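Working notes for the structural subgroup meeting. M.R. asked for a predicted model of this chain before we commit to crystallization trials. I am recording the input and output together here so anyone reviewing the notebook later can reproduce the run.

Input as submitted:
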Amino acid sequence: MTHVALMTARRNVDEWVDAARIHGLQHASQTEMHTYAQHLIDCGLATLDAHIQISPRLIAAARFPDGRAMKHIAQVLLRARPPFWLYLAVNGRHVQRELIPTDDLKALQWLEPRLDQILVRSAADVNAEADDKVAKFLGEAAELLLVAALEYEGRQPVHVAKLSDAHGYDIEVPGRDVDCIEVKAASSASSEEFHITRNEFETAVYCTSRWRLVQVVFDNAALLADKIGVNHIESIRELGHEALQQLIPADTESFRWEKSARISVPLNAWRDSEILPDPDFIIPGLALRAATHL
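Returned structure, recorded in token form:
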């Protein structure tokens, strides 16, 4: 498997397999080697274009000496194609082996004595990626919902976040004074806090009353729904620039936050938003988007 990972300058799977066999995997049958190679392609750890291209992550794992390479490759594979039981069997830093199918556990025995450590690290990587995808999806859904709501009010919002992240807000609404709206999304479980970038904060200070933060809170069912509509909204609430400034400590000679900060907001700091969602608003849900690559 290590040698398969390092055979990069090959034009097709057959050449790749032949090269790997020459470099030490003679004990594996041609059929097995094709299976290994195809699995790497299916997992996205290798691509076939003009020639075979291997994922940098897999190449890095394969360059470890001796048996360490095999264990690092196993972790890369678990992350690329996590088994269904990984989410169930790993709880924090504890592995419940009784929740791992017997055949799978037997197949993983060669990773001892580091099996638990590898499973914990793999689960942490997978969960972090999943959390990032969910956060990105909810953020996009909240922005689209507010754009649709403002259009429903008869206004003409500009979705500036689609152009650049440099504005310091996501939606601009032309008028006598330009309304600058920074959108934050949350689920029921994460609604008490949000991340804000330094640029967003400085934009709020500069724009003063023209800038506001609008948080859209979705119920937990939104994460499993095929389609998301207004029935999945728990609340829409706002935080003005003054309330935001009160939550963030001033820079000092010994402290300055740079890229982003996580803010916990007291319940009494929020105010209900007057923005009303378009009753016909609907977008594909997270599962449907993943299935159709939207």
